[in-house]
UniProtKB/TrEMBL annotation:
Gene3D superfamilies: 1.50.10.10. It comes from Pseudomonas fluorescens. GO terms for molecular function: isomerase activity. Pfam families: GlcNAc_2-epim (PF07221). The keyword Isomerase applies. Belongs to the N-acylglucosamine 2-epimerase family. The lineage of its organism: Bacteria, Pseudomonadati, Pseudomonadota, Gammaproteobacteria, Pseudomonadales. It comes from the Bacteria. This is N-acylglucosamine 2-epimerase. Keywords: Isomerase. InterPro entries: 6-hairpin_glycosidase_sf, 6hp_glycosidase-like_sf, AGE/CE. Transmembrane segments: none annotated.
């Protein structure tokens, strides 16, 4: 790591462990339901709860599972265990299998549909949690989630429907990029903790189909909807997120999809990143014109993490470390979104965001530390 970067990383890690994580152990925790509130305001008060999502529970399960065994994180194992129990107690559908999308403020099922995004995060979280605790029940939930994705969401061509009815009947959603990316992330987490030929084959089939159905041939860019869909776009943050997953995986490195996203990285950087401020734009048309200039903290984190795997990026990496620290992090937490001028446009702090910061910082530590 360049010598200048280590103090910057240490500052980010101190902020994360001393401020952000405790928010979700204290004011962000609904002890009655044993679930994180969906979001806190700028003064650490829970926003009035309208719902609780299984995906948010799973992301927080990942967060605390990742802290098990870390110095100063003695409470992480108990919190992860509580989140794992809540995932099953509140969201599991005993009648039809799988997990509900959300429950209401009183803990009753709200949106009973089954979506791939939620199930992908359950796979991801349970794989990480099982890696730490090796409890048979955790692996059985991981297996159940993998099984329901394979049997219910799969469309037979390597891809998966984005959302289905509670009873698994079709909603004609078709595949969408973002749930599929997180499914790939879940598959990778599973393969990191055990030998699993079925999951490995599913991952490779998914990569092949993404290359065929979602990749623009000229730029290598990963579109948000399948090629040919009306009103399509791409997000620079997702190019960087995909690049990291592909570049860091022994299974996926060297695939055609990896080659595409290596090209897409350069295009997304050229069109979607301000080379002075380091701001990452939200949405772009394929020609590179900006459709949404909102700067989101998750995209900043994904760009920073991806840079750790790009040779010759030391100066840009240093710039992005400082940009995250100066524009998005503050003494009360973080700014979720900035507008095109760099002004704060969202002051709430969602319970889902620490997942992005945790994966970013782990990438920085692993590849640079």
């Amino acid at each position: 790591m360049p010598s200048a970067s280590q103090p910057s990383l240490n500052t980010l890690l101190t902020h994360f462990h001393s401020l952000i994580v405790p928010l979700w152990q204290g004011p962000g925790w609904n002890a009655e339901l044993a679930l994180p509130y969906e979001a806190l305001d700028a003064d650490h008060r829970p926003l009035p709860p309208q719902r609780y999502r299984a995906m948010a529970c799973a992301r927080q399960l990942y967060l605390f599972a990742s802290l098990i065994g870390e110095p100063g994180a003695e409470c992480a194992e108990n919190r992860a265990a509580a989140l794992f129990r809540s995932l099953q107690r509140h969201f599991h559908d005993a009648e039809h299998g799988g997990w509900f999308y959300s429950i209401d403020a009183a803990g009753k099922p709200l949106d009973k549909r089954k979506d791939l995004y939620t199930h992908a995060f359950i796979i991801f979280a349970c794989a990480h949690y099982w890696a730490k605790v090796r409890e048979p029940l955790v692996e059985s939930v991981l297996n159940a989630a993998l099984d329901v994705v394979a049997k219910r969401f799969a469309t037979g061509d390597g891809l998966y429907d984005a959302v289905l009815e509670r009873n698994w009947s079709s909603l004609n959603s078709g595949p969408l990029q973002n749930p599929l990316m997180h499914l790939a992330e879940g598959f990778l987490a599973t393969l990191a903790v055990r030998e699993d030929a079925i999951t490995r084959d599913a991952l490779l089939d998914l990569a092949t189909s993404m290359q065929k159905r979602f990749i623009d041939r000229q730029t290598g860019v990963m579109m948000e909807k399948p090629l040919g869909a009306v009103d399509n776009w791409f997000e620079p943050g997702h190019q960087f997120e995909w690049f990291f997953l592909l570049e860091s995986s022994d299974v996926l490195r060297g695939t055609p999809l990896h080659a595409s996203l290596t090209r897409a990285f350069a295009y997304a950087e050229l069109k979607g990143v301000d080379n002075v401020s380091g701001a990452v734009s939200g949405m772009l048309a394929l020609d590179g014109s900006v459709r949404d200039a909102t700067q989101r903290i998750w995209a900043q984190a994904e760009y920073l993490r991806a840079l750790t795997l790009r040779p010759g990026s030391e100066a840009v990496l240093e710039r992005q470390l400082l940009a995250l620290q100066q524009h998005f992090l503050h003494e009360k937490g973080w700014n979720e979104c900035l507008d095109a001028r760099g002004e704060v446009s969202r002051r709430d702090m969602p319970s889902t965001t620490p997942y992005h910061l945790a994966t970013c910082y782990q990438g920085l530590i692993r590849h640079l530390g």
